[in-house]
Amino acid sequence: MTNILRTVVVLALMMVESRFVRAAEVDVRPLEIQVEQAFPQIAWEGWTIDSGDEDDLPPYPLRPLLITHAGDNSGRIFVVEEHGVIYVIPPGDDPRRAKRFLDIATLISYNAIENEEGLLGLAFHPQFAQNGEFFVFYTNKHTPHHQNILARYHVSKENPSVADPQSREVLMTFDKPYWNHDGGTIIFGPDGCLYIAIGDGGMMDDPHGHGQRLDVPFGKILRIDVDHKDGELPYAIPHDNPFVGKPNARGEVWALGLRNVWRMAFDRKTGALWAADVGQDTWEEIDLIVKGGNYGWNLREGLHKFPKAKQDVREGMIDPIFEYDHRLGKSITGGFVYRGEQIPQLKGGYLYADYVICRMWALWYDDATKQVTANREIRLPHKIAVMSFGEDQDGNPYFMTDSRKGTGIYRLAPEKVSYLSAKGK
């Protein structure tokens, strides 16, 4: 597709609804940002390069799904690998060695063909430096049905550089009707509560109508207090959650009507909660999540009536701030609003990508006017199916893909760098 045609497509998409600014006011110029491999010589403890030889262990590509930090000013970077290992990368120069921080691979259900299960989420407690607590979200292996687990772990008392695998405390269990649409992002908000993105339970069309039901956790953003307990619950439900005390409603629900949020993040400056919701038939969307918000699924998809819905319901529904249809891409990967200092031209932009077409953008939104002001592409050096984004404690941006060489972690750089030829394939 030529650059001119790309621009026309993006402009056309932005004109779908009048609530977007006029196309001429939307900046779609590509960003001059460089992409480089973050750790080109890294060695992963317990993992070897997949050469296709049956004697190699483990015989699978490395699948990093999340990069984050512990908020403890240590400079360490933590990487979640989908098969069930959390690695820690110490600060310093290459070559680096990624050590296993927590290995729960024996607990994890993952199918390389289905590709949506596994170890999906990690969040460090805001007081991790003091209490050593962190939380994980994963697909449980030892169950006769599909099941997601939210659990708390602690670092080892003997060695604070590794976690204690025996410290697991299961906080929530989600018994799913189908294998897909797990969601799995867990993050702490500015209020100290833990926010959890849960997919709609799987299958096409949300056949059980989970997205609009308040009595089930699926198709929701949940919010819980992990520092207290309610009765027999191993957590507390905040009293200001929007559906607390309402008949036939789960008190943990913060927002509803979401199909399968694949990554959400709080803006470190404004506190806004951004979420990318993967579409089904036609529309991929970006939402700003608010307390009690209903984002439409499965009555609506993006700004539109879902074709299988019996009627076009608009009242009480919150529209996405941005959408694109499947002529442009087919599976959105959400990121975060960049608030770092190293790339001035990216500041305030929300990073996102499309996994299927291997393209990436930064989007700017004016909250005062409720309008998108820019949607600028970040050109990738080759086809990279972006599985997730992440940042270190300094706010430096990373993104990830699977790799048979273990080199599928990339970072964005402010100026021209010498791009290494290895492609992480």
In short:
The chain is mostly beta strands and 425 residues long.
Please characterize this protein's 3D structure:
The chain is mainly beta and 425 residues long. It is built from 2 helices and 27 strands. The strands form 7 sheets. Strands 2-6-5-4-3 form a 5-stranded mixed sheet, with no helix packed on it. It has a 4-stranded antiparallel sheet with strand order 1-27-26-25, with no helix packed on it. The longest helix has 12 residues, at 3-14. The chain is globular, with a radius of gyration of 21 Å. Residues 1-24 and 417-425 have low confidence and may be disordered.
Helix content: under 10%
Please write the CATH class name. Mainly Beta
Mean pLDDT: 90
Query: In the CATH hierarchy, what is the superfamily?
Result: TolB, C-terminal domain
Q: Label the CATH architecture.
A: 6 Propeller
**Distance between the amino and carboxyl termini:** 24 Å
Count of strand segments: 27
Could you tell me the strand content as a percent range? Answer: 35-45%
- Poorly predicted runs are 1-24, 417-425
Rg estimate, integer Å: 21 Å
User: How many discrete domains?
Assistant: 1
